């Protein structure tokens, strides 16, 4: 999505929305955080969604996380960013924008990275897979 255009970008957006829907409906549910009322390893692993995705959306000119489409995920982002330890350590939006804007539309040199960032092997798909493994681990190891 970040490095693609046209039909390729549309497919990447569609794939990303499907993965976000999976997070919204199956992983997050009605909990404040992925594993309950406290931040867990799963929230940390998904933390990039809270800040990085917003910047990437802006640079790519695409909005993925609309509050009416993903109310629970949107609320999770607010809760996550509101935690003191996260607030103190999250990079600033403008700071990240300065870094990513010049990279927009420029394909990375690594073919695998290009494939991942263009959506055919979506980052969100990999994240979702990782998330479910972490949820399974968390449920078994408290």
Automatic annotation (TrEMBL):
<feature type="domain" description="GST C-terminal">
    <location>
        <begin position="1"/>
        <end position="100"/>
    </location>
</feature>
<dbReference type="InterPro" id="IPR045073">
    <property type="entry name" value="Omega/Tau-like"/>
</dbReference>
<dbReference type="GO" id="GO:0006749">
    <property type="term" value="P:glutathione metabolic process"/>
</dbReference>
<keyword id="KW-0812">Transmembrane</keyword>
<dbReference type="InterPro" id="IPR010987">
    <property type="entry name" value="Glutathione-S-Trfase_C-like"/>
</dbReference>
<dbReference type="GO" id="GO:0005737">
    <property type="term" value="C:cytoplasm"/>
</dbReference>
<keyword id="KW-0472">Membrane</keyword>
<feature type="transmembrane region" description="Helical">
    <location>
        <begin position="116"/>
        <end position="137"/>
    </location>
</feature>
<protein>
    <submittedName>
        <fullName>GLUTATHIONE S-TRANSFERASE GST SUPERFAMILY GST DOMAIN CONTAINING</fullName>
    </submittedName>
</protein>
<dbReference type="Pfam" id="PF00043">
    <property type="entry name" value="GST_C"/>
</dbReference>
<dbReference type="InterPro" id="IPR036282">
    <property type="entry name" value="Glutathione-S-Trfase_C_sf"/>
</dbReference>
<dbReference type="InterPro" id="IPR004046">
    <property type="entry name" value="GST_C"/>
</dbReference>
<dbReference type="GO" id="GO:0004364">
    <property type="term" value="F:glutathione transferase activity"/>
</dbReference>
<dbReference type="InterPro" id="IPR045074">
    <property type="entry name" value="GST_C_Tau"/>
</dbReference>
<keyword id="KW-1133">Transmembrane helix</keyword>
């Amino acid at each position: 999505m970040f490095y693609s255009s046209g039909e390729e970008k549309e497919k990447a957006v569609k794939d990303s929305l499907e993965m976000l829907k999976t997070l919204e409906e199956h992983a997050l549910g009605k909990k404040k955080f992925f594993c309950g009322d406290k931040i867990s390893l799963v929230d940390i692993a998904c933390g990039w969604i809270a800040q990085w995705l917003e910047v990437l959306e802006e640079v790519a000119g695409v909005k993925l996380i609309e509050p009416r489409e993903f109310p629970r995920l949107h609320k999770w982002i607010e809760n996550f960013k509101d935690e003191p330890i996260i607030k103190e350590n999250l990079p600033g939006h403008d700071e990240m924008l300065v870094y990513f804007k010049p990279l927009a539309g420029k394909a990375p040199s690594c073919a695998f990275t290009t494939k991942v960032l263009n959506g055919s092997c979506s980052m969100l798909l990999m994240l979702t897979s990782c998330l479910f493994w972490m949820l399974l681990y968390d449920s078994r190891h408290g």
